[in-house]
Amino acid sequence: MDREIIDQLTAIVGADNASTNPVDLVCYSVDCYAIKKGSMPDIVLRPNSVAEVQGIVRMADKHLIPVVPRAGGSCLTGGCVPTRGGIVLDLQRMNRIIEVSKENLTVTVEAGVVFAQLNTYLQRYGLFFPPDPASGEICTIGGMVAANASGMRAVKYGVTGDYIIGLKVVLPDGRLLDMGGGARKSASGYDLIHLFNRSEGTLGVIVEITLKLRSLPRFIMSAVAKFHSPEDAGRTVARTIAAGVIPAAIEILDEVALQVMREEAHLPLPEAAAMLFLEFHGDDRSEAQKALNKFRKIADEEKCAGIEIATDPVEMERMWAARRRLFATFTRLKPSPIATDIVVPLSKIPEAIREIQEIARKNDVKITTYGHAGDGNVHSLLLADLRIPGESDRAHKAHDDINWMALRLGGTITGEHGIGLEKREMTKDEHGEVGVDIMKRIKKAIDPKGIMNPDKIFEV
Q1: pTM over cut 0.85
Q2: Distance of alpha carbon 293 from alpha carbon 111, whole angstroms
Protein backbone atom coordinates (compact mmCIF):
# COMPACT_ATOMS: atom_id res chain seq x y z
CA MET A 1 0.00 0.00 0.00
CA ASP A 2 1.28 3.44 -0.93
CA ARG A 3 2.77 5.44 1.96
CA GLU A 4 0.59 8.44 1.19
CA ILE A 5 -2.56 6.30 1.45
CA ILE A 6 -1.35 4.80 4.76
CA ASP A 7 -0.81 8.31 6.11
CA GLN A 8 -4.28 9.42 5.02
CA LEU A 9 -5.92 6.37 6.60
CA THR A 10 -3.94 6.88 9.79
CA ALA A 11 -5.11 10.49 9.95
CA ILE A 12 -8.74 9.35 10.05
CA VAL A 13 -8.38 7.35 13.28
CA GLY A 14 -5.24 8.88 14.79
CA ALA A 15 -1.77 7.37 15.05
CA ASP A 16 -2.62 5.51 18.29
CA ASN A 17 -5.40 3.62 16.51
CA ALA A 18 -3.54 2.56 13.37
CA SER A 19 -0.77 0.01 13.06
CA THR A 20 1.60 -1.29 10.44
CA ASN A 21 3.72 -3.01 13.08
CA PRO A 22 4.58 -6.50 11.76
CA VAL A 23 3.63 -8.07 15.11
CA ASP A 24 0.12 -6.60 14.89
CA LEU A 25 -0.21 -7.53 11.24
CA VAL A 26 0.66 -11.16 11.96
CA CYS A 27 -1.93 -11.29 14.78
CA TYR A 28 -4.62 -9.91 12.48
CA SER A 29 -3.77 -12.39 9.72
CA VAL A 30 -5.44 -15.24 11.65
CA ASP A 31 -8.60 -15.96 13.59
CA CYS A 32 -9.58 -19.09 15.55
CA TYR A 33 -9.54 -21.25 12.43
CA ALA A 34 -6.75 -23.79 12.90
CA ILE A 35 -5.28 -23.62 9.40
CA LYS A 36 -3.69 -20.34 8.33
CA LYS A 37 -5.03 -19.39 4.93
CA GLY A 38 -4.96 -15.63 5.27
CA SER A 39 -2.30 -13.05 4.48
CA MET A 40 -0.91 -10.13 6.43
CA PRO A 41 -2.91 -6.91 6.03
CA ASP A 42 -1.15 -3.71 5.05
CA ILE A 43 -2.66 -1.80 7.95
CA VAL A 44 -4.95 -2.31 10.96
CA LEU A 45 -7.34 0.54 11.77
CA ARG A 46 -9.42 0.91 14.94
CA PRO A 47 -12.21 3.45 14.30
CA ASN A 48 -14.25 4.98 17.10
CA SER A 49 -17.27 6.29 15.18
CA VAL A 50 -19.48 5.70 12.18
CA ALA A 51 -17.97 8.77 10.52
CA GLU A 52 -14.48 7.28 10.83
CA VAL A 53 -15.66 3.98 9.34
CA GLN A 54 -17.21 5.90 6.45
CA GLY A 55 -14.00 7.84 5.86
CA ILE A 56 -11.94 4.63 5.78
CA VAL A 57 -14.33 2.83 3.44
CA ARG A 58 -14.49 5.80 1.05
CA MET A 59 -10.70 5.72 0.82
CA ALA A 60 -10.78 1.98 0.21
CA ASP A 61 -13.42 2.39 -2.49
CA LYS A 62 -11.42 5.12 -4.23
CA HIS A 63 -8.15 3.15 -4.23
CA LEU A 64 -9.59 -0.41 -4.62
CA ILE A 65 -8.27 -1.54 -1.22
CA PRO A 66 -9.75 -4.72 0.35
CA VAL A 67 -11.50 -4.15 3.70
CA VAL A 68 -11.99 -6.91 6.29
CA PRO A 69 -14.31 -6.02 9.21
CA ARG A 70 -13.30 -7.67 12.48
CA ALA A 71 -13.88 -7.42 16.22
CA GLY A 72 -13.39 -10.31 18.67
CA GLY A 73 -11.60 -12.55 16.16
CA SER A 74 -13.37 -15.65 17.51
CA CYS A 75 -14.44 -16.82 14.04
CA LEU A 76 -13.76 -20.53 13.45
CA THR A 77 -13.77 -20.49 9.63
CA GLY A 78 -11.16 -17.93 8.56
CA GLY A 79 -14.03 -15.51 7.97
CA CYS A 80 -12.33 -12.40 9.37
CA VAL A 81 -8.80 -12.78 8.00
CA PRO A 82 -7.44 -10.86 5.00
CA THR A 83 -6.52 -12.80 1.87
CA ARG A 84 -5.34 -9.91 -0.31
CA GLY A 85 -3.64 -7.59 2.15
CA GLY A 86 -5.43 -4.27 2.52
CA ILE A 87 -7.23 -3.01 5.64
CA VAL A 88 -8.38 -4.90 8.70
CA LEU A 89 -11.05 -2.78 10.32
CA ASP A 90 -11.06 -3.59 14.05
CA LEU A 91 -14.39 -2.41 15.51
CA GLN A 92 -13.68 -3.18 19.16
CA ARG A 93 -13.46 0.50 20.14
CA MET A 94 -17.05 0.98 18.95
CA ASN A 95 -18.39 -0.73 22.05
CA ARG A 96 -21.06 1.63 23.36
CA ILE A 97 -24.51 0.57 24.51
CA ILE A 98 -26.53 3.39 23.01
CA GLU A 99 -30.01 2.85 24.42
CA VAL A 100 -32.03 0.32 26.39
CA SER A 101 -35.80 0.53 26.23
CA LYS A 102 -37.42 -1.56 28.95
CA GLU A 103 -40.85 -0.50 27.70
CA ASN A 104 -40.16 -1.75 24.17
CA LEU A 105 -37.87 -4.64 25.18
CA THR A 106 -35.11 -3.41 22.86
CA VAL A 107 -31.47 -2.38 22.99
CA THR A 108 -29.35 -0.47 20.48
CA VAL A 109 -25.61 -1.12 20.51
CA GLU A 110 -22.50 -0.47 18.49
CA ALA A 111 -20.96 -3.42 16.68
CA GLY A 112 -18.04 -3.88 19.11
CA VAL A 113 -20.14 -4.57 22.23
CA VAL A 114 -19.23 -7.97 23.70
CA PHE A 115 -22.10 -10.43 24.16
CA ALA A 116 -21.39 -11.28 27.82
CA GLN A 117 -20.87 -7.64 28.78
CA LEU A 118 -24.18 -6.70 27.17
CA ASN A 119 -26.09 -9.30 29.16
CA THR A 120 -24.37 -8.26 32.38
CA TYR A 121 -25.50 -4.68 31.70
CA LEU A 122 -29.07 -5.79 30.84
CA GLN A 123 -29.53 -7.60 34.16
CA ARG A 124 -30.29 -4.32 35.90
CA TYR A 125 -33.36 -4.03 33.65
CA GLY A 126 -34.44 -7.65 34.16
CA LEU A 127 -33.75 -8.35 30.47
CA PHE A 128 -31.41 -10.47 28.38
CA PHE A 129 -30.32 -11.19 24.80
CA PRO A 130 -30.74 -14.98 24.68
CA PRO A 131 -28.34 -16.49 22.08
CA ASP A 132 -25.51 -17.92 24.14
CA PRO A 133 -22.43 -18.67 21.99
CA ALA A 134 -19.58 -20.53 23.65
CA SER A 135 -17.33 -17.60 22.77
CA GLY A 136 -19.70 -15.17 24.50
CA GLU A 137 -16.97 -13.71 26.72
CA ILE A 138 -15.12 -12.34 23.67
CA CYS A 139 -17.44 -12.35 20.63
CA THR A 140 -19.17 -9.11 19.66
CA ILE A 141 -22.71 -8.35 18.61
CA GLY A 142 -21.55 -7.18 15.19
CA GLY A 143 -19.77 -10.47 14.61
CA MET A 144 -22.80 -12.41 15.83
CA VAL A 145 -24.97 -10.60 13.29
CA ALA A 146 -22.45 -11.14 10.49
CA ALA A 147 -22.43 -14.91 11.14
CA ASN A 148 -25.99 -15.33 12.46
CA ALA A 149 -24.45 -16.82 15.57
CA SER A 150 -26.38 -18.85 18.09
CA GLY A 151 -25.53 -21.04 21.04
CA MET A 152 -26.76 -23.15 23.88
CA ARG A 153 -30.11 -21.38 24.30
CA ALA A 154 -31.01 -21.42 20.60
CA VAL A 155 -33.28 -24.44 21.00
CA LYS A 156 -35.76 -22.42 23.08
CA TYR A 157 -35.04 -18.82 22.18
CA GLY A 158 -33.75 -18.85 18.61
CA VAL A 159 -30.66 -17.42 16.89
CA THR A 160 -29.26 -13.91 16.48
CA GLY A 161 -31.24 -13.25 13.32
CA ASP A 162 -34.50 -13.75 15.20
CA TYR A 163 -33.74 -10.68 17.33
CA ILE A 164 -32.50 -8.10 14.82
CA ILE A 165 -34.99 -5.31 14.15
CA GLY A 166 -32.58 -2.58 13.09
CA LEU A 167 -29.16 -2.21 11.48
CA LYS A 168 -26.85 0.55 10.37
CA VAL A 169 -24.35 -0.56 7.75
CA VAL A 170 -21.60 1.39 6.01
CA LEU A 171 -21.82 0.31 2.38
CA PRO A 172 -18.73 -0.31 0.20
CA ASP A 173 -18.98 3.18 -1.29
CA GLY A 174 -19.10 4.83 2.16
CA ARG A 175 -22.83 5.56 2.29
CA LEU A 176 -24.72 4.72 5.51
CA LEU A 177 -27.69 2.38 5.13
CA ASP A 178 -30.12 2.81 8.05
CA MET A 179 -32.70 0.01 8.34
CA GLY A 180 -35.53 -0.47 10.84
CA GLY A 181 -34.92 0.05 14.53
CA GLY A 182 -38.37 0.78 15.96
CA ALA A 183 -41.11 -1.68 15.00
CA ARG A 184 -40.78 -5.31 16.05
CA LYS A 185 -41.92 -6.56 12.65
CA SER A 186 -42.35 -5.24 9.12
CA ALA A 187 -43.71 -6.29 5.72
CA SER A 188 -42.33 -3.25 3.91
CA GLY A 189 -40.18 -4.00 0.85
CA TYR A 190 -37.28 -6.39 0.61
CA ASP A 191 -35.89 -7.68 3.90
CA LEU A 192 -32.59 -5.79 3.75
CA ILE A 193 -31.86 -6.31 7.44
CA HIS A 194 -31.61 -10.06 7.06
CA LEU A 195 -29.68 -9.72 3.82
CA PHE A 196 -26.80 -8.38 5.92
CA ASN A 197 -27.40 -10.90 8.70
CA ARG A 198 -24.97 -13.81 8.04
CA SER A 199 -23.33 -11.93 5.15
CA GLU A 200 -19.92 -12.32 6.91
CA GLY A 201 -18.77 -8.77 6.13
CA THR A 202 -18.96 -9.29 2.38
CA LEU A 203 -21.60 -6.61 1.75
CA GLY A 204 -20.67 -3.81 4.15
CA VAL A 205 -19.54 -2.89 7.65
CA ILE A 206 -22.19 -3.41 10.35
CA VAL A 207 -21.78 -0.50 12.78
CA GLU A 208 -24.98 -0.41 14.85
CA ILE A 209 -27.61 -2.98 15.80
CA THR A 210 -31.04 -2.80 17.43
CA LEU A 211 -32.15 -6.04 19.06
CA LYS A 212 -35.30 -7.37 20.61
CA LEU A 213 -34.85 -8.60 24.18
CA ARG A 214 -36.52 -11.09 26.51
CA SER A 215 -37.36 -10.86 30.19
CA LEU A 216 -35.04 -12.87 32.44
CA PRO A 217 -36.56 -16.20 33.49
CA ARG A 218 -37.83 -16.26 37.05
CA PHE A 219 -36.76 -19.82 37.74
CA ILE A 220 -33.89 -21.91 36.33
CA MET A 221 -33.31 -25.62 36.86
CA SER A 222 -30.31 -27.55 35.52
CA ALA A 223 -29.96 -31.31 35.16
CA VAL A 224 -27.54 -33.89 33.77
CA ALA A 225 -28.57 -37.21 32.25
CA LYS A 226 -26.23 -40.20 31.69
CA PHE A 227 -26.43 -42.58 28.72
CA HIS A 228 -24.75 -45.78 27.61
CA SER A 229 -24.13 -44.43 24.08
CA PRO A 230 -24.17 -41.09 22.20
CA GLU A 231 -26.87 -42.52 19.91
CA ASP A 232 -29.20 -43.09 22.89
CA ALA A 233 -28.61 -39.51 23.97
CA GLY A 234 -29.25 -38.29 20.41
CA ARG A 235 -32.55 -40.18 20.17
CA THR A 236 -33.60 -38.69 23.51
CA VAL A 237 -32.93 -35.18 22.20
CA ALA A 238 -34.94 -35.77 19.03
CA ARG A 239 -37.88 -37.31 20.87
CA THR A 240 -37.86 -34.60 23.55
CA ILE A 241 -38.18 -31.75 21.05
CA ALA A 242 -40.72 -33.66 18.95
CA ALA A 243 -42.84 -34.12 22.09
CA GLY A 244 -43.03 -30.36 22.55
CA VAL A 245 -40.69 -30.28 25.55
CA ILE A 246 -38.39 -27.34 24.85
CA PRO A 247 -35.56 -26.90 27.38
CA ALA A 248 -33.72 -23.61 27.41
CA ALA A 249 -30.62 -25.67 26.63
CA ILE A 250 -29.98 -29.32 25.86
CA GLU A 251 -26.32 -30.08 25.23
CA ILE A 252 -24.94 -33.45 24.21
CA LEU A 253 -21.42 -34.41 25.29
CA ASP A 254 -19.62 -37.59 24.37
CA GLU A 255 -17.11 -39.55 26.43
CA VAL A 256 -14.09 -37.57 25.19
CA ALA A 257 -15.65 -34.22 26.06
CA LEU A 258 -16.69 -35.46 29.50
CA GLN A 259 -13.22 -36.74 30.25
CA VAL A 260 -11.70 -33.37 29.39
CA MET A 261 -14.24 -31.56 31.57
CA ARG A 262 -13.40 -33.83 34.48
CA GLU A 263 -9.64 -33.46 34.09
CA GLU A 264 -9.31 -29.83 33.04
CA ALA A 265 -12.31 -28.19 34.76
CA HIS A 266 -12.19 -30.53 37.76
CA LEU A 267 -15.91 -31.21 37.58
CA PRO A 268 -17.16 -34.28 39.48
CA LEU A 269 -18.91 -35.77 36.45
CA PRO A 270 -19.70 -39.50 36.57
CA GLU A 271 -18.32 -41.96 34.05
CA ALA A 272 -20.63 -42.24 31.03
CA ALA A 273 -20.47 -42.84 27.29
CA ALA A 274 -22.52 -39.67 26.82
CA MET A 275 -24.42 -37.11 28.83
CA LEU A 276 -27.02 -34.45 28.25
CA PHE A 277 -26.71 -31.13 30.07
CA LEU A 278 -30.13 -29.49 30.36
CA GLU A 279 -31.51 -26.19 31.55
CA PHE A 280 -35.21 -25.52 32.08
CA HIS A 281 -36.67 -22.02 32.42
CA GLY A 282 -40.06 -21.19 33.90
CA ASP A 283 -42.08 -18.66 35.82
CA ASP A 284 -41.83 -20.92 38.86
CA ARG A 285 -40.41 -24.25 39.97
CA SER A 286 -43.52 -26.21 39.03
CA GLU A 287 -43.32 -25.15 35.39
CA ALA A 288 -39.67 -26.21 35.09
CA GLN A 289 -40.36 -29.42 37.02
CA LYS A 290 -43.23 -30.32 34.70
CA ALA A 291 -40.93 -30.05 31.66
CA LEU A 292 -38.24 -32.07 33.45
CA ASN A 293 -40.72 -34.83 34.28
CA LYS A 294 -41.72 -35.15 30.62
CA PHE A 295 -38.06 -35.30 29.64
CA ARG A 296 -37.36 -37.93 32.30
CA LYS A 297 -40.09 -40.23 30.89
CA ILE A 298 -38.60 -40.06 27.39
CA ALA A 299 -35.04 -40.48 28.66
CA ASP A 300 -35.98 -43.57 30.67
CA GLU A 301 -37.48 -45.12 27.54
CA GLU A 302 -34.13 -44.52 25.79
CA LYS A 303 -32.14 -46.40 28.45
CA CYS A 304 -31.04 -43.36 30.44
CA ALA A 305 -28.62 -44.44 33.17
CA GLY A 306 -29.66 -41.73 35.61
CA ILE A 307 -30.64 -38.08 35.96
CA GLU A 308 -29.27 -35.70 38.55
CA ILE A 309 -30.68 -32.27 39.36
CA ALA A 310 -28.18 -29.48 39.97
CA THR A 311 -29.39 -27.35 42.87
CA ASP A 312 -26.26 -25.40 43.77
CA PRO A 313 -26.09 -22.21 41.60
CA VAL A 314 -22.28 -22.13 41.89
CA GLU A 315 -22.02 -25.75 40.70
CA MET A 316 -24.48 -25.03 37.89
CA GLU A 317 -22.39 -22.10 36.67
CA ARG A 318 -19.19 -24.19 36.84
CA MET A 319 -20.86 -26.85 34.72
CA TRP A 320 -22.02 -24.45 32.01
CA ALA A 321 -18.78 -22.46 32.07
CA ALA A 322 -16.80 -25.66 31.48
CA ARG A 323 -19.06 -26.47 28.53
CA ARG A 324 -18.56 -23.01 27.04
CA ARG A 325 -14.79 -23.34 27.29
CA LEU A 326 -14.53 -26.81 25.78
CA PHE A 327 -13.10 -25.56 22.49
CA ALA A 328 -10.43 -23.51 24.23
CA THR A 329 -9.63 -26.45 26.49
CA PHE A 330 -9.21 -28.83 23.56
CA THR A 331 -6.98 -26.27 21.84
CA ARG A 332 -4.56 -26.52 24.75
CA LEU A 333 -4.48 -30.29 24.35
CA LYS A 334 -4.36 -30.37 20.54
CA PRO A 335 -3.30 -26.99 19.11
CA SER A 336 -4.90 -27.31 15.65
CA PRO A 337 -8.46 -28.65 16.14
CA ILE A 338 -11.03 -28.23 13.39
CA ALA A 339 -14.61 -27.46 14.40
CA THR A 340 -17.70 -28.54 12.49
CA ASP A 341 -21.17 -27.13 13.08
CA ILE A 342 -23.48 -29.12 10.86
CA VAL A 343 -27.24 -29.11 11.37
CA VAL A 344 -29.40 -32.12 10.49
CA PRO A 345 -33.13 -32.80 10.83
CA LEU A 346 -33.96 -33.76 14.41
CA SER A 347 -34.84 -37.33 13.46
CA LYS A 348 -31.39 -37.73 11.89
CA ILE A 349 -29.38 -36.78 15.00
CA PRO A 350 -28.67 -40.39 16.09
CA GLU A 351 -27.66 -41.35 12.53
CA ALA A 352 -25.36 -38.31 12.26
CA ILE A 353 -23.66 -39.16 15.56
CA ARG A 354 -23.17 -42.77 14.47
CA GLU A 355 -21.72 -41.73 11.11
CA ILE A 356 -19.35 -39.24 12.74
CA GLN A 357 -17.93 -42.08 14.84
CA GLU A 358 -17.43 -44.13 11.67
CA ILE A 359 -15.78 -41.18 9.91
CA ALA A 360 -13.36 -40.88 12.83
CA ARG A 361 -12.40 -44.56 12.53
CA LYS A 362 -12.08 -44.42 8.74
CA ASN A 363 -9.78 -41.41 8.81
CA ASP A 364 -7.85 -42.40 11.94
CA VAL A 365 -8.73 -39.10 13.65
CA LYS A 366 -9.97 -38.57 17.19
CA ILE A 367 -13.29 -36.74 17.07
CA THR A 368 -15.32 -35.48 20.00
CA THR A 369 -18.99 -34.65 19.49
CA TYR A 370 -20.87 -32.18 21.63
CA GLY A 371 -23.15 -29.21 21.26
CA HIS A 372 -26.66 -27.79 21.17
CA ALA A 373 -28.35 -30.78 19.57
CA GLY A 374 -31.83 -29.57 20.47
CA ASP A 375 -32.06 -27.67 17.18
CA GLY A 376 -30.20 -30.34 15.21
CA ASN A 377 -26.84 -28.59 15.54
CA VAL A 378 -24.24 -31.33 16.00
CA HIS A 379 -20.78 -29.98 16.79
CA SER A 380 -17.78 -32.19 16.25
CA LEU A 381 -14.23 -31.19 17.05
CA LEU A 382 -11.57 -32.99 15.06
CA LEU A 383 -8.51 -33.15 17.27
CA ALA A 384 -5.42 -32.46 15.21
CA ASP A 385 -1.89 -31.16 15.59
CA LEU A 386 -0.22 -29.54 12.58
CA ARG A 387 3.15 -30.63 13.94
CA ILE A 388 2.31 -34.32 13.49
CA PRO A 389 2.85 -35.35 9.84
CA GLY A 390 -0.40 -36.31 8.12
CA GLU A 391 -2.71 -35.70 11.09
CA SER A 392 -4.06 -32.38 9.82
CA ASP A 393 -4.66 -33.80 6.33
CA ARG A 394 -6.64 -36.69 7.78
CA ALA A 395 -8.63 -34.27 9.94
CA HIS A 396 -9.53 -32.13 6.93
CA LYS A 397 -10.65 -35.21 5.01
CA ALA A 398 -12.84 -36.19 7.96
CA HIS A 399 -14.17 -32.62 8.14
CA ASP A 400 -15.27 -32.81 4.50
CA ASP A 401 -16.84 -36.24 5.07
CA ILE A 402 -18.91 -34.85 7.95
CA ASN A 403 -20.15 -31.94 5.84
CA TRP A 404 -21.06 -34.26 2.94
CA MET A 405 -22.93 -36.45 5.39
CA ALA A 406 -24.93 -33.46 6.67
CA LEU A 407 -26.01 -32.55 3.13
CA ARG A 408 -26.95 -36.16 2.37
CA LEU A 409 -29.16 -36.23 5.49
CA GLY A 410 -30.97 -33.08 4.37
CA GLY A 411 -29.05 -30.66 6.58
CA THR A 412 -26.60 -27.79 6.23
CA ILE A 413 -22.83 -27.50 6.51
CA THR A 414 -23.03 -24.64 9.02
CA GLY A 415 -25.54 -23.69 11.67
CA GLU A 416 -23.68 -20.83 13.32
CA HIS A 417 -19.99 -20.54 12.39
CA GLY A 418 -20.55 -19.43 8.80
CA ILE A 419 -18.74 -20.33 5.57
CA GLY A 420 -15.66 -18.09 5.62
CA LEU A 421 -12.74 -19.75 3.87
CA GLU A 422 -13.15 -23.16 5.48
CA LYS A 423 -16.34 -24.29 3.74
CA ARG A 424 -16.21 -22.11 0.63
CA GLU A 425 -15.66 -25.01 -1.77
CA MET A 426 -18.92 -26.63 -0.62
CA THR A 427 -21.21 -23.59 -0.97
CA LYS A 428 -22.34 -24.66 -4.43
CA ASP A 429 -22.99 -28.21 -3.22
CA GLU A 430 -25.47 -26.88 -0.67
CA HIS A 431 -27.06 -24.01 -2.59
CA GLY A 432 -26.65 -25.18 -6.19
CA GLU A 433 -25.39 -23.19 -9.16
CA VAL A 434 -28.51 -21.03 -9.28
CA GLY A 435 -28.30 -20.19 -5.59
CA VAL A 436 -24.63 -19.21 -5.74
CA ASP A 437 -25.27 -17.21 -8.93
CA ILE A 438 -27.96 -15.17 -7.14
CA MET A 439 -25.60 -14.58 -4.19
CA LYS A 440 -22.87 -13.38 -6.56
CA ARG A 441 -25.30 -11.02 -8.28
CA ILE A 442 -26.29 -9.52 -4.92
CA LYS A 443 -22.59 -9.14 -4.03
CA LYS A 444 -21.89 -7.45 -7.38
CA ALA A 445 -24.83 -5.06 -6.99
CA ILE A 446 -23.85 -3.88 -3.51
CA ASP A 447 -20.06 -4.23 -3.77
CA PRO A 448 -19.27 -3.79 -7.50
CA LYS A 449 -15.53 -3.33 -6.89
CA GLY A 450 -15.30 -6.45 -4.70
CA ILE A 451 -13.47 -4.75 -1.83
CA MET A 452 -15.55 -6.08 1.09
CA ASN A 453 -14.01 -9.14 2.74
CA PRO A 454 -13.08 -10.78 -0.56
CA ASP A 455 -12.79 -14.56 -1.01
CA LYS A 456 -15.31 -15.42 1.72
CA ILE A 457 -18.45 -17.59 1.19
CA PHE A 458 -17.65 -18.01 -2.53
CA GLU A 459 -14.97 -16.92 -4.99
CA VAL A 460 -15.55 -13.59 -6.72
Answers
A1: yes
A2: 41
